[in-house]
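Moderator note: this is an archived Q&A kept for reference. The question asked for a predicted structure of one protein chain; the sequence and the answer are reproduced below.
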Amino acid sequence: MGEPSASNTDKLRNQIQRFRGRLRSSFPFISGVLAAFLALFLYNFLFPGTRQLTEEQVNNAIVSVLASATPRPAYSTTIAPITTGQGKSVTTGHHPRTVAPPVGPL
């Protein structure tokens, strides 16, 4: 009673053989994945990347840029001459022709 029957042993043997067959057929794929990971590891080891900026370096760069910025003139100084009629006008060397007013309803 303790011994497995012949049919159970044959089923187990067949399952193991199918598993070995799948393992053999997937071996090229698995070895390719491992080779790719090994190549990435070696590349990162032989050619290390540049060091990342620290938070302090970024903050210093931002402060430097903001400190060197020239503020724009006040909005009121650019609008006042236009609204008061003191804006600069461009003149040309000739006088414009006078145009007759339109005739008829507008």
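Archived answer notes: The mean pLDDT is 81.
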